[in-house]
């Protein structure tokens, strides 16, 4: 009976692939809603995925770019409105 995973299998690569995909999806959603929250989360997840060596490097780079774009869109809207907060 074997209670542990085989030593040759890398279990962390699947986690990093999930982080790359999640950063892409959150960055894309951040362009539409909650860019102040979803943008930084997308940047962090993409950075972690790239640092850990994901197989989906392109998806992580897209997530990183979209996360930065979220913050740029937020800054553009704030400067166009001449405010530092949201008004109701």
Detailed description of the structure:
The chain is an all-alpha fold. It has one domain (14-81). It has helices at residues 12-30, 35-52, 57-81. α1 packs antiparallel against α2 (35-52). The chain is elongated. The mean pLDDT is 83.
Question: How do you describe this structure in short?
Answer:
The protein is mainly α and 88 residues long.
**Beta-strand proportion:** under 5%
Which structural class do you get from the secondary structure elements? mainly alpha
Question: What is the count of structural domains?
Answer: 1
Total of helices = 3
The general outline is elongated
Our measurement of the CA-to-CA distance between the termini, rounded to an integer number of angstroms, reads: 63 Å
* Biggest sheet overview: none
Radius of gyration: 17 Å
As residue ranges, the low-confidence spans are none
Order of helices and strands: HHH
């Amino acid at each position: 009976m074997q209670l542990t995973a085989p030593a040759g299998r890398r279990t962390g690569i699947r986690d990093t692939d999930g982080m790359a995909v999640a950063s892409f999806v959150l960055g894309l959603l951040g362009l539409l809603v909650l860019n102040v929250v979803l943008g930084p989360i997308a940047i962090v997840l993409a950075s972690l995925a790239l640092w850990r060596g994901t197989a989906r490097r392109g998806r992580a780079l897209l997530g990183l770019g979209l996360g930065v774009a979220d913050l740029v869109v937020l800054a553009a809207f704030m400067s166009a409105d001449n405010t530092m907060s949201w008004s109701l």
